[in-house]
Amino acid sequence: MRRRVFHRSIVAVGLSTAIPSLALAAEWDAATASSNFGIFALTDAQLAERKIIVTPIGDLELPTGEIIACDPLITGDDWPALSRRVKPGHYAVTLFEAQGRVAAAFLRFRPGVPVRWELATLPGQDVSALNGNEIFGYPVDAGLGSFMDKTAMGLMSAAQDKLKPDQNYYDDVLAAEFAPNQDRFVMHHPAAGNPVNIAMFWSGWGDGLYPTFWGLDATGEPLVLMTDFGVLDNADGREGGQAN
Question: Counting beta carbons within 10 angstroms of the beta carbon of residue 127, is it exposed (0 to 12), middle (13 to 18) or buried (19 or more)?
Fold first, then answer.
C-alpha cells in the first residue's frame, strides 16, 4: 500500500503549497513507485494485447530546456522547473491511454528504450532524504497534468490576468480547445503568435498525487520524461498484470 505524504514549501504565488509524495521502499528504487517502465519495450502487438493505446499529441517547444510538470490550473508562475534540464528544442509528447483514461504522458527526447529510471525532482528535493515509502510528485486538483517550458508558465499567468472577474481559464479559454479531442488533451498556446506551448492532458482518474520520472540511457542521458497517473499496473506484462 502506497502511503501519501506532503513536504511543504513555498512554490506558488502567495500560497504555501504541498509538494506531495507517493510511497516507496526504504532504499529507493523507481520500480517501487511505478511498475510500468517496461511499456517502452513493448511492440505494437503487445500494446494492443494489453489494450493500451498510444496517442501522439504534438511537439512541445522548450526554448530554455527547463521543464515544468504540474497541474497547470492550480499552480502559478513561481512553480519551479525540474532540476534536470534538457537541450532546448521541440520534443514529441505522447499519451498512453487505457480504460478510457490517460494512463501516462511522456516527452520523448531521443529514440531508444531507457535502461535506468530516476525520480524527477524539484530544486531542494533530495531523494536520499525521503523516509520509508515516500516519493516526490505533483498535486492535481483540476484533473489535469502538463508539460511545459518554464517560459510558458509566465505566458499563461499573463493570459489569466487578462480575464474578466466572472471568467475562468478552463471554461473561457481551454474548453473549446479540449473539445475536439474529447476533452482528453490539448497543445495550448497561451500567447497568440508565440510558438511556446503547453501540453495538457487528463490526469488518470482525476485528482491525486503523481510522480514523474526520467528514463535514461546507458550514459545517463535522458531519453524520455514520463508522468505515471496510476491507471496501469504492470503494463509491461510482468507477473501477468496489465491495467488495474
Answer: middle
